[in-house]
UniProtKB/TrEMBL annotation:
SMART domains for the chain: DSRM, RIBOc
Chain segments carrying region Disordered: 222-262
Pfam family, one: dsrm
Enzyme Commission code: 3.1.26.3
MF (Gene Ontology): double-stranded RNA binding; metal ion binding; ribonuclease III activity; rRNA binding
Protein name: Ribonuclease 3
Gene from which the chain derives: rnc
SUPFAM superfamilies: dsRNA-binding domain-like (SSF54768), RNase III domain-like (SSF69065)
UniProt organism field: Corynebacterium urogenitale
Listed PANTHER family: RIBONUCLEASE 3, RIBONUCLEASE III
Length: 262
């Protein structure tokens, strides 16, 4: 008996998209989108590349990133008039960084709907921070194209309402942690920072030492008078190392303040 021929191209795209009922996803977002643009917004480049270089969601992601950034920036400007430009910049970073967007995607149950290539599917691509974050932006780009900026902005403010309200406690208190999240997002490094710390010295004047790891490759250390201060110092060291390293085409040695993980 002849083996069934694998679908490719548009046939593969339509078949993969048709396996899911997208009504729950649209209900979670609180929007209506045509199948054509929703299908495009959910098509990751790995699926596209495996099926004849079909159009993927990266152009929509580009639009959605702009819609998201402007909508959150304007709302922070209006909601926190007493904050400086430096403050609201950090607050925005705490709201729209890759990890925050990935959390939004998980809350909306987006992972199973994303159309991925076989390689990404095998490695858990439907739960990778970068893929989830990019798809959130692609959906926002789709909403903008079909319904205009006002509708896209309303969607952003509704879905990100709690994060925007909590932005002072997230963005400002995180400080170098937020800057690190921004840098990791910029460099498309999907691993999440992991902090461990321990207390040394006498009880009346302890010193805290923090170790920060990003995946298997990057490691940085920091010290401080308390755990929070030590973690911020480690995050600052990591940012400085990544800044020094980012001029290189590949992340070989992180540089001063960071080293390859052991």
């Amino acid at each position: 008996m002849a083996r069934k021929r694998r679908l490719t191209g548009e046939a593969a795209l339509n078949a993969a998209y048709g396996r899911s009922d997208h009504a729950p996803l649209l209900e979670a977002w609180g929007v209506e989108l045509s199948d054509d643009i929703l299908r495009l917004a959910l098509t990751h480049r790995s699926f596209s590349n495996e099926n004849g270089n079909l159009p993927n969601n990266e152009r929509l992601e580009f639009l959605g990133d702009a819609v998201l950034g402007l909508s959150v920036a304007e709302q922070l400007y209006r909601e926190f008039p007493e904050r400086s430009e430096s403050d609201i910049s950090k607050m925005r970073a705490g709201v729209v960084n890759m990890y925050a967007l990935a959390e939004v995607a998980r809350e909306l149950g987006m992972g199973p709907y994303i159309l991925l290539g076989r390689g990404e599917m095998r490695t858990g691509g439907d739960d990778k921070h970068s893929i989830l974050a990019d798809t959130v932006e692609a959906i926002l780009g789709a909403i903008y194209l079909e319904h205009g900026f006002a509708s896209a902005r309303e969607t952003v403010l509704r879905i990100f309402a709690t994060r925007i309200t909590n932005a002072p406690s997230v963005g400002l208190t995180m400080d170098w942690k937020t800057v690190l999240l921004q840098k990791l997002s910029e460099l498309k490094i999907a691993e999440q920072p992991a902090y461990t710390s321990e207390e040394t010295g006498p009880a009346h004047a302890p010193t805290f030492e923090a170790v920060l790891r990003v995946g298997e490759r990057y490691r940085a250390m920091g010290t401080g008078k308390n755990k929070k201060e030590a973690e911020h110092a480690a995050a600052k060291a990591m940012v400085n190392a990544l800044n020094a390293d980012s001029s290189s085409a590949s992340h070989r040695e992180p540089g001063a303040g960071a080293s390859q993980g052991s």
